[in-house]
């Protein structure tokens, strides 16, 4: 298993290195041009709104919401045992890492809504705007439902986190800061302590398994270097800082103190592939939200080395 993963990593590095040597990835300064891999093709920038497609997107969304409510939320949340609407301050839950989880779910919703609006003919800017508003509305609706649950409550922090996440795709398109940093997520089951707990809704779902999740900010040194120095640095090589929590968060009688864990890792900027077609850009946009396995060092609370984190070996 270890050799297989190591071979994939080495093969990937060789591929990227060879590609850059052959100028397969294009000019080293491509990302500093006016072209943006997230922008639509010039000939596709203006579309005619298709009411039928827009109705289809709206109908599909409503059907998905209805199905989720009847088959998942109604049973998984609290079934028939409701209560009066109330608020809950859960800011400290899972050492705040669940707020990053809500943020990530907002990002997913924002991207999905954007693709739906663009497909139906809404302009690029308004597709991003409406996608963010739709993601925010979704989180408000979910937390209003939580507000009537006996074991939960309406969490303003959950709504804010998810709403901000819903506007991240728009920020990545229009805010220059995101030329230099990507926000990413990684997941690997290294411990099953979360799944051994009693869960009201089910046996547990991976989205709540924060012990095995890590959230990253991936920085792109290539784009920060002076033009003369860029030829010596691989355009695809990024440096990421990540945060996670230890398993003590889900152990009732934990001998130590539950704590956060901080990591520094190598990363891959998939935008360096210079995607050209609409679907290639969509694929890169999607994959670039995931932090792929890479050499990593844990720097807090103690120092540990991992060859292919999030796989801990």
Quick recap:
This protein has 313 residues and is an alpha+beta fold.
The proportion of residues forming helix, as a percent range, comes to 40-55%
Broad shape:
flat
Major sheet: arrangement of strands = 1-2-3-4-5-6
**How is the biggest beta sheet arranged?**
6 strands, antiparallel
Query: Which ranges are low-confidence, i.e. pLDDT below 50, for 5 or more consecutive residues?
Result: 4-34
Distance between the termini: 11 Å
Rounded mean pLDDT score: 81
* Radius of gyration over all CA atoms, rounded: 21 Å
Give a verbal description of the structure.
It contains 8 helices and 6 strands. 40% of the residues lie in helices and 14% in strands. By secondary structure, the chain is an alpha+beta fold.
Which structural traits does this protein have?
alpha+beta, 40% helix, 313 residues
């Amino acid at each position: 298993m270890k050799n297989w993963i190591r071979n994939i990593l080495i093969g990937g590095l060789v591929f990227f290195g060879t590609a850059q040597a052959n100028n397969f990835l294009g000019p080293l300064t491509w990302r500093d041009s006016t072209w943006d891999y997230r922008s639509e093709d010039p000939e596709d920038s203006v579309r005619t709104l298709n009411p039928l497609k827009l109705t289809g997107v709206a109908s599909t969304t409503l059907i998905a919401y209805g199905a989720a409510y009847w088959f998942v939320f109604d049973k998984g949340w609290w079934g028939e045992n409701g209560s009066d609407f109330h608020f809950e301050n859960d800011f400290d839950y899972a050492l705040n890492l669940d707020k990053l989880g809500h943020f990530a779910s907002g990002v997913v919703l924002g991207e999905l809504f954007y693709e739906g609006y663009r497909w139906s003919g809404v302009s690029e800017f308004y597709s991003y705007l409406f996608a963010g508003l739709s993601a925010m509305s979704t989180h408000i609706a979910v937390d209003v439902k939580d507000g009537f649950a006996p074991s939960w409550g309406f969490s303003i922090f959950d709504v804010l986190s998810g709403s901000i996440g819903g506007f991240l795709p728009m920020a990545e398109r229009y805010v220059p800061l995101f030329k230099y940093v990507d926000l990413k997520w990684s997941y690997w089951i290294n411990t099953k302590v979360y799944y051994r707990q009693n869960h009201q809704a089910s046996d547990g779902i991976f989205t709540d398994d924060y012990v095995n999740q890590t959230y990253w900010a991936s920085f792109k040194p290539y784009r920060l270097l002076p033009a003369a120095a860029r030829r010596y640095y691989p355009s695809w090589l990024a440096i990421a800082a990540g945060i996670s929590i230890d398993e003590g968060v889900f152990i009732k009688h934990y001998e130590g103190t539950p704590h956060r864990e901080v990591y520094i890792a190598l990363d891959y900027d998939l935008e360096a592939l210079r995607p050209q077609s609409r679907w290639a850009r969509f694929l890169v946009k999607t994959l670039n939200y995931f932090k792929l396995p890479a050499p990593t060092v844990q720097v807090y609370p103690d120092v540990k080395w991992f060859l292919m984190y999030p796989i801990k070996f």
